[in-house]
Amino acid sequence: MIKVHLSRLMGEKRINIADLSRLTGLHRNGIAKLYNEETDGVKFDTLNRICEALDCEVQDIIEYIKEEKNDQNKRL
Q1: What is the mean pLDDT of residues 63-70?
Q2: What's the whole-model pTM score?
């Protein structure tokens, strides 16, 4: 599972979606989808712009979390 930490990061830096949109040149709707974890993909350019604006690393924004499989799935 991929977890997006943009909302936490933006909260820590006290920046809102409109501000991040202005800083990055990205559309507010795209940022909002990432913020709310409602997207199924993100372009490298988008991550680059966000990292530059928030002075952070990619791993501060997205994280891979290995999902635990239950015993029933292991048998399949």
Answers
A1: 87
A2: 0.84
